[in-house]
Design goal:
single chain, 434 Repressor (Amino-terminal Domain), 5-stranded antiparallel beta sheet, elongated
């Protein structure tokens, strides 16, 4: 059986259509159509979400069943993923066993410090120092007692300083922050700028040119903007919870309440919902 890419190309050629005509009808760029017909699915910047969405759109254009096309895509991807672990296992079985490492060197003996006895004259010197210090302390106590007995040391007069009166700061009015009106940035040259406004708490994943730019919850009233050069893809678990603006043009809500939605936009507009 021919591969999925060959099947798509043969179907298009049987219809007598060119890749340029397919691009004009599906809004999918020619290079992406060539990648689909070549089976080069791993090269898509938007990953599996973008591949599945483009396959659905291209299948409808060629008059094929989108479900059958996606089933063949899943089968080919599964075969490729299953072949990779089998090849790795075969290489491991053919590899020679690792040689045992050399025996570790015996640990070096720790150096045990040797303590030498302190000379006796140091103890005599310490006793002399203690005796001199005691003599000085006793002499100082005796001199201080004589001055106290003769009354030559006057008691200091206690003076109290009244504390300064505290100065309270004058309250000032808190300025009211100005109301900021959100503005939607213009699209970059040749790219796409997408703005999402959450009308309620909603889970969102945004993919720009194949990289996950955001994945998480947006709160009610939160507005966020992302830009890309090729394609911006939005996944959500509640289509009614998001208002979409692309390149300054309102697109309305993503879908119905509670609907799981995936939509993609390129520089020329929406490229189709998977």
């Amino acid at each position: 059986m021919e591969t999925l890419g060959v099947w798509l190309r043969q179907t298009r050629e049987a219809r007598g259509g060119s890749l340029k005509e397919a691009e004009d009808s599906t809004r999918i760029r020619v290079r992406f159509l060539e990648m689909l017909e070549a089976g080069d699915f791993a090269a898509f910047p938007g990953g599996e979400v973008q591949v599945r969405g483009f396959l659905r759109i291209y299948a409808r254009y060629l008059g094929l069943s989108p479900d059958e096309v996606l089933a063949r895509y899943e089968s080919e991807v599964h075969d490729i993923e299953s072949a990779a672990p089998a090849a790795a296992t075969a290489e491991m079985q053919q590899a020679p066993p690792a040689r045992p490492s050399a025996e570790p060197a015996p640990p070096r003996p720790r150096d045990i410090p040797v303590y030498a006895p302190r000379p006796r004259w140091l103890s005599l010197e310490a006793l002399l120092i203690v005796g001199v210090v005691l003599t000085i302390v006793l002499a100082g106590i005796a001199i201080a007692g004589r001055f106290i007995a003769s009354g030559t040391i006057a008691e200091p007069a206690a003076t109290a300083t009244a504390p300064a009166e505290a100065v309270l700061p004058t309250p000032t009015e808190t300025p009211t922050p100005p109301v900021v009106t959100p503005t939607f940035p213009a699209a970059p040259q040749g790219g796409v700028t997408l703005t999402l406004e959450a009308t309620e708490h909603v889970w969102v994943r945004v993919t720009t040119d194949g990289l996950t730019a955001f994945e998480g919850l947006l709160t009610t009233g939160q507005v966020e903007t992302w830009s890309g050069q090729e394609v911006v893809i939005v996944d959500t678990g509640n289509g009614a919870g998001l208002l979409v603006t692309v390149n300054g043009q309102p697109q309305g809500v993503m879908g119905e309440r509670g609907q799981v939605c995936t939509r993609a936009w390129g520089p020329g507009g929406e490229v189709g919902a998977p």
